[in-house]
Amino acid sequence: MSITANPQINGVDVPTLFATLDAVREQNEIAAFRFRASNTWVRGTHSRSTYSGFFGAGQEMQHRHDTVVESDHPEVLVGSDQAPTPVEYLLHAIAACLTAGIANVAAARGVELSKVSSTVEGDIDLLGILGLSDGSVRNGYEQIKVTLHVEGDADDATLRGIVEQSRRRSAVYDVLTQPTPVAIEVVTG
Amino acid sequence: MSITANPQINGVDVPTLFATLDAVREQNEIAAFRFRASNTWVRGTHSRSTYSGFFGAGQEMQHRHDTVVESDHPEVLVGSDQAPTPVEYLLHAIAACLTAGIANVAAARGVELSKVSSTVEGDIDLLGILGLSDGSVRNGYEQIKVTLHVEGDADDATLRGIVEQSRRRSAVYDVLTQPTPVAIEVVTG
């Protein structure tokens, strides 16, 4: 479990990962990233977002391909259920962020993973968003629970340590658990 | 701009929307929802989530169709850029949540919308997640900025009021701006 000479472990190019860390350590300003999404209303509660480019490493970059995702409300909430709800995307975000971190941390520690899977559940009391609470019910999730299954060539404590390090460095975990300022600018026409 | 007799405005079935509010007001417990995502690691920083069912209105329900979404890190961050990053899904979530709310609130207020579009930008300094900060840089977004373009058969103040009411009742806005507990359970094998 020392750092392996194999450049690819868990599909992570470990020498490049460490070289990237070194590059950012030398030149902090390349760590400033700006991600973007563009959303268009379709009808009712149905809308569509496109991801195309982002700013990072000191320059404007393009994703390898554009991605389109949609959201809607379910029929029981008077939507047309064309796609998952907006809040369900938060569940993917936390699962995917922790999982990417687990793969990276495991690779850096020389641990080969054979499986990472998770289920994420978010509990929400809709009395909040429906405006039917006296103020005691929040609009968002009361709690989110992630259940991770991790298998690899390391013992239980090592695998748990990898998950914990991923949590400690997770951007999505931080945004969910700590306040993030959201500014809304409105242009009418 | 009084409440319209037209049952469909902005693709929102207004009588059903009000009937749903009445039903929840009568029976608060049907407002308890649990949303879910299941994620599987693919390789490196690439993973895939599936949305299928959820619990709501007192019963287990299925989405009209399953949805699969993926995440990866970009190549500049040693990923294979197969899909948007986990943090980019947070940007879709806030845009889609505000937009669905705008359509609902506008319909409830009898305002016909002709356009809602938005761009969302999230600024993140990767010194945090890369562990290269002295602790002053957070892991997540430093700020998120939503720029909304809203057009409809109402004046500027009315349209802004609709956006503001959507923000006030937005589940995703609440999760991003207020702390949400995230529990992580690990099973190793």
Furnish the topology, listing elements before pairings:
Two copies of one chain form a homodimer.
Chain A lengths: L7 E2 L2 E2 H13 L5 E12 L2 E11 L2 E13 L14 H23 L4 E13 L17 E10 L3 H13 L2 H7 L4 E7 L1
Antiparallel strand pairs in A: 1-2, 3-4, 4-5, 6-7
Helix pairs in contact in A: 2-3, 2-4
List its traits.
homodimer; 189 residues; alpha+beta; two-stranded antiparallel sheet
Overall description:
- Two copies of one chain form a homodimer.
- Chain A is of the alpha+beta class.
- Helices cover 30% and strands 37% of the residues of chain A.
- A three-stranded antiparallel sheet of chain A has the order 3-4-5, with no helix packed on it. In chain A, strands 1-2 form a two-stranded antiparallel ribbon. A two-stranded antiparallel ribbon of chain A has the order 6-7.
- In chain A, a hairpin with a 2-residue loop joins strand 4 and strand 5 (59-71).
- In chain A, helix 2 (86-108) packs across helix 3.
- Chain A is globular.
- Chains A and B meet through strand 2, helix 1, strand 3, strand 4 and strand 5 of A and strand 2, helix 1, strand 3, strand 4 and strand 5 of B.
